[in-house]
Amino acid sequence: MAEALPRLIHIPAERPQASVLQWLLHQLVSEQSSELPGTSLASSQLTQLMFVQILRVYLKIADFSANGLLRAVRDQRIAPALRLMHSDPGHPWHLEDLAKATAMSRTTFATYFRKVAGVGPLTYLTEWRMRLAEHALRKDQISVSELAQSLGYTSESAFSHAFKRVTGMAPRHYRISVEGQFKHN
Question: Is residue 79 part of a domain?
Fold first, then answer.
């Protein structure tokens, strides 16, 4: 999702939400300058809240005439399908399941989804699964086989093939490269 965001998001001071962001920023600065127990956790939570608030404001004020992920997230016609994919990415979703959730025919849904999101619904699902896989490979000690199963793949081989097609490298190589980056930082 981060790649769908612009490099800079400007929130004008006159926006009603700006006061919430100012308060959060003040709290974050206060937290960082204190030496209280839990400073790291509190700072992390405040940072997450700031990100959510910035994203909410951006979704309200941005021009989403171009297709893409953020336009898709805001589109109420395909929102039910996105909620299904996001809530249960390991489910073996079929085009007809997702179309039914949106009360559209398969063809209408697929065409409309592609127009709004910039990719077809099943391509979107695959890319979403791979983003989840990247995160799990960076953060968790889950095996590639367990990860494949949790994301709806019937075999480690099928998952590895999809992962490499989307990311450019095999899951194990990805994990090794990420671990190598952390060792050098």
Answer: yes
